[in-house]
Automatic annotation (TrEMBL):
Residue ranges occupied by any ABC transmembrane type-1 domain in the UniProt entry: 253-534
Principal localisation: membrane
MF terms in GO: ABC-type transporter activity; ATP binding; ATP hydrolysis activity
Coiled-coil ranges per UniProt: none
Location relative to the cell: Membrane
Domain named ABC transporter: residues: 569-803
Lineage of the organism: Eukaryota, Fungi, Dikarya, Ascomycota, Pezizomycotina
Gene Ontology cellular component annotations, sorted alphabetically: membrane
Pfam families per the UniProt record, alphabetical: ABC_membrane, ABC_tran
Gene3D superfamilies named in the record: ABC transporter type 1, transmembrane domain, P-loop containing nucleotide triphosphate hydrolases
Keyword Protein biosynthesis: no
UniProt-recorded name of the protein: ABC transporter
Residue spans crossing the bilayer: 20-39, 51-69, 89-109, 121-139, 151-169, 250-271, 366-388, 394-412, 478-499
Length: 840
């Protein structure tokens, strides 16, 4: 046997590569675009510069012209000159025409793309390498081409190199700056503090209105699409991959194997059907083995086969990711600082958490719809190409490209509708949430009809947007069906021709019909799968934005535990502003020795409660320091700080639970007896016992079933059982009657022994015994001292006192501005509440 000429092998390889190149590049483009579309869809679309865009389109048109001319010449040789055409070259020319038309359509359809993107860039690289190699091969071997074809090929190689050069130039520069030179700032958001380092996907945060400075200063560090894709994957991956759990990892493997087996069954079933037909038509015997094998395959393909197994394996995986997502979102909300909770819209946050859990739906769609569908398409092109020749591969690839392109166009048109639909859904949820939680306010202002109208109009909007969204989805299905039917017609003609020419058995025709049907159903999922995945991604965006939010109050990594403090407090020149603009505290300094009671008084809005919030570390002082027993509170752990401070807030709220559980919330190991004692101290014990369910009575949402005074007393009872070292009373007795107040004062004074108390009071009668009274005005301490000292000073505090005392103003006018004796003010005024005047 003569040895094979190495040049023949080279020729064979070159031809095989030539006929496979368009197919493989098309498949690459398909997969890469799918990944790019899904994972970079949330980024802002900033167009390529127009000259660059137009230049690229021009170059691609030239490439198309060369492929078109080459295909026409080859067909002319075949039809006109009756020469046998070189099948691989014709397939190459036609296939390349298809690939480059697809790339061109991607560039020209819809808005100008933001960047060239890795799918296009990849195709250009593949073609540059391949066409250069083919050119080199034709120039250096005996396999010479006609001069025309050489010109076409050389032109293309030059253009491909230019395109590659452009994309290399474009990647760092253009994607970093917009047309006007503005630096991009879409992906320099702060890192997700508990997601993997480097996880930075370009999502904006829920209430982010502050742009990240780093984005302005480092425009050239902006990542390209591909790295964004990986960053997004990095963000989502920890929620999905059961790190450290080998059992669950094995389940992933099981699911993967089921999916793989599914793909094979998809191909084997129609082939088996074709084989049965062939045996029946040609051999006239009972193909019982084939039938049994076919039945087995059908069984595996049915709902009781691999599908059921896969679903069974998937349940623990989905539950695991749900648990991670739900707890991460909840923990994050609980860990966020007061500024977030002040700003948040409850409806939006709840919605974001709920929708965050849709990441698992997204993964389900990706794993069970999108990836199998893409794999099926790739396999279909290869299988049909192998079974019926390159023309069939070309028909299938054309159908798939047209199908995907038309669906993609409709999806792009839907994008705005979808966004609109989601924002309307959010609005609906917000109104629902706010109106129901603020039902009392709505009723006080007699705005129930107004709220009903508001809700009904947003529901109308939603219905409208829903209708338009669905109509387009139906239009998409119609277009898809049409493309598939046309493709089937072409394929049927080709195979029928091959059967009639005796080149194929009848079974091949049956196989084609069966296979096409199997291919059509995953294709039909294309739109719905991608639509749902993009909706889920928008949902996931909110969730990721929530997770990316950094708490403004963070513990230092070397924070110490504040253990059993004595309760010495010191504020040193503390300045604070909530919004960075309006200064609320303008240099507050005071000290409280262990066991002292410090009272904060002053006009409303002077910053009294803010001082308490800073001490509790709801916010961080902008300037100055706050110390407990000489430790700066920012150097100790939040847990240990807060466990040493008991708070009776201005507006205590309870959980929708029993009285007993609500009080025990302050000290989870408190006994029933301790709770009864605390309630007795605030004169609630007998009241609770007289209720039908006693301490087991449910208090309703936020404690609505209790009166304001009762709520305040429950809040005090909570602090009594918490038994902290430092107590903050923010108008703790403002809602109770005088008799109850004196009881509470008694229980507070017994509680006060050895503890430091800071009291905010409008009713000055409650703080006359305080060791130190600080009178605040406009964020400053304007006076300090005990009651008698301040009265004798006859200043701001004295004026406040007189306003609350019986005939205060009169006595002032009677006696001129001189307050002679302090004794006169030693009685406790009974005025219900100090209501300051603006003139103060
Ligand atoms: N979360 C917040 N964000 C922005 N500004 C706030 C916030 N909380 C309070 N403020 C503003 O800070 C100022 C001081 O509020 P603060 O509650 O400390 O006053 P206060 O002296 O306790 O008043 P009151 O006696 O009425 O309770 C007020 O003008 C208030 O509008």
């Amino acid at each position: 046997m003569p040895a094979a000429d190495p040049r023949d092998w080279l020729c064979y390889t070159a031809r095989a590569l030539q006929s496979l190149l368009p197919l493989s590049t098309g498949l690459f483009y398909l997969i890469a675009s799918a990944i790019d579309y899904v994972l970079s869809k949330s980024h802002e679309d900033k167009p390529l510069p127009l000259p660059l865009h137009n230049g690229i389109i021009g170059l691609i048109l030239i490439v198309l012209a060369t492929y078109g001319s080459e295909a026409s010449l080859l067909l002319y040789e075949f039809l006109g000159k009756n020469q046998q055409p070189s099948e691989d070259r014709l397939v190459f020319a036609l296939g390349s025409l298809l690939v480059w038309t697809t790339i061109l359509l991607g560039l020209t359809s819809g808005t100008r793309p933001r960047s060239l993107g890795f799918p296009r860039w990849g195709c250009w690289m593949i073609y540059t390498a391949a066409e250069s190699a083919f050119l080199f091969y034709h120039l250096t071997t005996h396999d010479r081409l006609h001069r025309c074809y050489l010109i076409f090929r050389t032109t293309r190689v030059v253009i491909f190199f230019t395109l590659c050069g452009l994309s290399t130039f474009q990647s760092p520069l253009i994607s970093a700056r917009f047309n006007d030179g503005t630096p991009r700032n879409d992906d320099n958001c702060p890192l997700l503090h508990h997601l993997p380092p480097g996880c930075n996907s370009g999502y904006s945060t829920i209430s982010d209105n502050v742009s990240d400075e780093s984005s302005d200063t480092k425009p050239f560090e902006v990542k390209n699409n591909l790295s964004k894709t990986f960053e997004t994957l990095k963000c989502i991956a920890p929620f999905l991959w059961p790190k450290g759990n080998f059992g669950l990892q094995l389940l992933y493997l099981g699911v993967g194997l089921c999916l793989l087996a599914d793909r094979f069954i998809n191909i084997l079933l129609p082939i088996q059907l074709g084989a049965i037909t062939d045996v029946l038509t040609s051999e006239h015997v009972l193909p019982w083995r084939n039938i049994i094998f076919y039945t087995l395959l059908r069984l595996l393909d049915s709902g009781g086969g691999l599908w059921a197994l896969r679903a069974y394996l998937w349940i623990p995986l989905e539950n695991d990711s749900y648990k991670k997502i739900a707890t991460a979102a909840f923990n994050q909300i609980m860990d966020l600082s007061s500024d977030f909770h002040d700003d948040k819209s409850s409806g939006k946050v709840w919605h974001a958490v709920t929708r965050g859990t849709t990441i698992r739906h997204m993964i389900r769609s990706l794993l069970f719809q999108i990836i199998p569908m893409i794999t099926d398409l790739l396999l279909a092109v290869i299988v049909l190409h192998v079974m019926f020749g390159p023309y069939m591969g070309l028909i299938t690839a054309t159908v798939i490209m047209v199908f995907l392109w038309s669906s993609g166009r409709i999806l792009a048109l839907q994008k705005l509708r979808r966004k609109n639909w989601i924002s309307i859904m959010e609005k609906e949820q917000n109104i629902l949430c706010e109106s129901t939680t603020n039902w009392k306010t709505v009723s006080y202002f007699n705005r129930i009809p107004y709220e009903k109208d508001r809700f009904s109009s947003v529901v109308d909007e939603r219905v409208k947007s829903d209708t338009s969204f669905r109509l387009w989805t139906h239009a998409e299905t119609a277009v898809q069906s049409l493309v598939l039917i046309l493709g089937l017609m072409g394929a049927c003609f080709l195979v029928a021709y091959q059967v009639s020419a005796g080149r194929k058995e009848v079974g091949s025709f049956v196989m084609l019909i069966g296979y096409w049907a199997r291919l059509s159903s995953p294709l039909q999922f294309f739109a719905s799968g991608f639509t749902s995945i993009t909706i889920d991604l928008v949902d996931a965006e909110e969730f990721i934005a929530l997770l990316k939010k950094d708490p403004s109050i963070k513990e230092k990594c070397n924070a110490k535990i504040l253990y059993a403090p004595r309760g010495a407090l010191r504020f040193q020149n503390v300045k604070f502003s909530y919004d960075g603009q309006r200064q609320i505290l303008k240099g507050i300094s005071f000290e409280a020795h262990p066991g002292q009671t410090i009272a904060l008084v002053g006009e409303t809005g002077s910053g009294k409660s803010t001082i308490l919030k800073l001490l509790f570390r709801f916010y961080k002082a902008n300037y100055g320091s706050i110390e407990i027993d000489g430790h700066d509170i920012s150097d100790v752990t939040l847990q240990s700080l807060r466990s040493n401070i008991g708070v009776v807030p201005q507006d205590p709220a309870l959980f929708n639970d029993t009285i007993l559980n609500n009080i025990r919330y302050a000290n989870l190991i408190a006994t029933d007896e301790e709770i009864y004692k605390a309630c007795a101290a605030v004169r609630l014990h007998h009241k609770f016992l007289s209720l039908p369910h006693g301490y087991q009575t449910n208090v309703g949402e936020r404690g609505v079933k209790l009166s304001e005074g009762e709520l305040q007393r429950v809040a005090i009872a909570r602090v009594l059982i918490q038994n902290p070292r430092i107590i903050l009373l923010d108008e703790a007795t403002s809602s109770v009657d005088s008799e109850t107040e004196s009881y509470i004062q008694q229980s507070l004074s017994s509680l006060a022994a050895g503890r430091t108390i800071i009291v905010v009071a409008h009713r000055l009668s409650t703080i006359v015994d305080a060791d130190h009274i600080l009178a605040l005005k406009d964020g400053n301490i304007v006076e300090r001292g005990n009651h008698l000292e301040l009265i004798n000073r006859n200043g701001y505090y004295c004026r406040l006192w007189k306003k609350q005392s019986d005939g205060g103003e009169l006595s002032l006018s009677r006696e001129g501005n001189a307050i002679k004796t302090a004794d006169k003010f030693l009685f406790k005024p009974e005025a219900p509440e100090f209501i300051p005047r603006w003139s103060d």
